[in-house]
Amino acid sequence: VQLVESGGGLVQPGGSLRLSCAVSGSIFSTNVMYWYRQAPGKERELVASISSGSGTFTNYGDFVKGRFTISRDNAKNTVYLEMNNLIPEDTAVYYCRTIIYQYDYWGQGTQVTVSS
To answer: Which end of the chain is more exposed for a tag (fewer CB within 10 A), N or C?
Structure first.
């Protein structure tokens, strides 16, 4: 199973980014998918999760406050994280994750930097 994130970059405060995570080697539609982030000197934290199948159920970290949206496209084996109204505190490496049976899979991460 491989997870490959993309879409990170440098953005000004108040800007937007859309992260993508392409998954291969699994039956994607059956996977619950997660986005995490880790800022320098801080622990990795959950940003958002989305249920398997049609992705009816989503969950967000308290700090998101309506600014981010997680979604999935099962036809493309991809999960997205749309991030709006970015603030400097959102600067971190963003990772996607899935758990299949007892195995825990992570992508390599994509850097998001929010700075003027």
So the answer is: C
Q: Are strands 17-24 and 78-83 parallel, antiparallel or unpaired?
A: antiparallel
d(CA 37, CA 57): 20
Report the C-alpha gap between 60 and 65 in whole angstroms: 8
Alpha carbon distance 26, 59 (integer Å): 22
Q: What is the dihedral of CA 19, 24, 28, 34, to 10 degrees?
A: -40
Q: How far apart are CA 103 and CA 99, in angstroms?
A: 6
- CA 10 distance to own-chain centroid: 16
Distance of CA 18 to the CA centre of its chain: 9
Cα(16)–Cα(10) distance, integer angstroms: 10
H helix or E strand, kind and range, residue 111? strand 110-114
